[in-house]
Structure formats: structure tokens, C-alpha cells
Amino acid sequence: MASNGNPTVNRLALIGIPMAIFVLGLKTLAWWLTGSVALLSDALESTVNVVAAFVAWGAIRYASRPADATHPFGHHKAEYVSAVIEGVLIVVAALLILQEAIPKLWAPKVLEQPALGLGVNFLAGVVNVVWATILIRAGRQHRSPALTADGHHIMADVVTSAGVLVGLILVVLTGYAILDPVMAILVAIHIVFQGWKIIMNSVNGLMDHAIESEEEAAIKQAIAVNADGSLGVHDLKTRRAGQAIFVEFHLVVPARMAVGDAHDICDRLEAAIEAVHQGAQVAIHVEPETEMAHGIKVKVEKAKA
Predict the structure, then answer these.
(1) Using an 8 Å Cβ cutoff, are 228 and 300 in contact?
(2) Where are its TM segments located (predicted)?
């Protein structure tokens, strides 16, 4: 049975669906009013936003499921799959834009009702700026790859829309209709670049990429302050999977230390690490000082007061 997961992340992912549909409607209206292939390219990218919003919502719900017999470490990586799919969809959108824009280079079309169409597209851009900012901040705060990827994609859409608006204003001012398909092609190139970045960032997550150096430093500090009674740690390893962080290391204790005392140290360390990274999943291997280390032994020094 699925758990509720992070309610803020789930709610934002769900709200993202009607938001994407609303923006798509505005951009489609702008294209219909003007007949601009550049605005059509902008609308096509927003079509991807709608699909991506559904995929992100589904992935976040699936990723929030608790661990089970077949997925003992949880379902967190589903968010990375969502982000990869979004990146692929972005590239597909770029190909569709090129298919529409390239033929127009030889037969550019004069814009119809440009002022009204550009005004509608500008409104869509403002909505996207606000929404993308909310998603990126929430994605970083709650460590949600799906929300972060969605936010960056929408922010890239904002850049695209701004470029389209500037290009079409130049079309109106200069009368050079060919600038319309040229701008659409530039939009497609920009979209491919953004899609590639999203795919590569998501692949890093699927490959058990270590957490950020600042986050790891905070964990080391928590260990240093709360490892009283032990002789040090070694083989500290971390990885991120969606909203979850996994931490493991070997804890060296005196050979004659009682099991209960070693367990108390582990409990203290786990609580300290979880205080630094809420929800972190910690695995500690305890070994006596007489045991040969399984890796390079690194004693964690206490921070000076």
C-alpha cells in the first residue's frame, strides 16, 4: 500500500498538472492568433510540460511507497526515471519544432494579430516564472529530483518564451518574416541542450551518485561530535536516491567493549546524522580494534571548540 510520502511534494506535483494545461492553453491561443511558427514551437514544448507533469506526479507517488519484499531499499529512484523521461520528451519536442520550422525558412508567413498574440504569450511566461521558482525551491528543500527537474524545465521554457517574444517583436518592427522560423530553430537547439542536462543529472542519480560535499561534511561533523567511546570510523559511503539519503560506515570500538555500549554509540550516531539529514537511512558496521580494517582507516577527529 502506498504511503502518503511528503505531502508538500505530492501536492505541488498534483497542482503542476492543471498549471501545465493552463499554460499550454495560453500558448496555443497565442499561436492561433498569430500563426507564428515560433509560438507554435513554444506551445509544443508546453505540450511536453503537460505530459511531464503527469509523469512527475505518478513517479512521486510511486517513490513515496514504503520498502517491501521486492524493493527492500524503497522506491525512491522512481523520481529519477521520471526526470529521464522528461528529458527524452524535451528532445522529442525539439525535433517536432525543427520539423515545423525548417520548411518555413523558404516560405515565411506574415504574422496575424501580433500584439494580442504576444500579450497572451507574455502572460503564459509570467505564470511559468512564478511556478518554476516554486518548484525549484521546493524540489531543493525536499530533495525531490522530479520536482527540481520539472522546475528547471519550466524555467527553460521561460527563457524560450522570452527569446520568442524578442524575436517576434523584431519581426513586427523590421518586417522580416524569416526571423520567425529562425527563432523557432534557435528555440529547438536551446530545448535539446536543456533536455540533455536533465537526462545526465538523472542518470547520475540512477548510478548511486554520492551526496554533495557540503552534505557529507555535515555528516562527518555529526559523527565527530557524537562518536565518544569509539576509536574512529572508516569506509564512509553515501548515496542519494530521490528524496532519500543512504549513509554507511564502519565504527571501530575497543575489543572489550560490551555489545550494549557499542549499540548505544550507534544509536547516538544515527540520531545525530538523521538530525542533519531528516530521513537519512544509516547502516553502521561495528568492529573491534583488533579486526583488520576492510579499507583505509580514517579516524574522525573532534572539532575544536
Answers:
(1) no
(2) 12-33, 39-60, 80-98, 118-138, 158-176, 182-199
Per-residue exposure over 80-93, b if at least 16 CB sit within 10 Å of its own CB, e if not: bbbbbbbbebbbbb
2 vs 252: CA distance, rounded Å? 38
Grid coordinates representing 62 are 510511486
Neighbours of 153 (CB within 10 A): 27
Report percent pLDDT > 90 for the chain. 15
Continuous segment of H or E residues that includes residue 219: helix 213-226
* Dihedral sign from CA coordinates of 165, 167, 170, 172: negative
Identify the helix (H) or strand (E) that includes residue 260. helix 259-276
Domain 213-298 CATH superfamily: Cation efflux protein, cytoplasmic domain (3.30.70.1350)
Q: Assign domain 7-206 one CATH number from 3.40.50.300, 3.30.470.20, 1.10.3720.10, 1.20.1510.10.
A: 1.20.1510.10
Q: How confident is the model at residue 134 (pLDDT cuts 50, 70, 90)?
A: very high
Q: Which residues contact 205 (CB under 8 A, 6 or more apart)?
A: 77, 79, 80, 83, 145, 240, 241, 242
Q: Could you tell me the pLDDT band of residue 255, with boundaries at 50, 70 and 90? A: confident
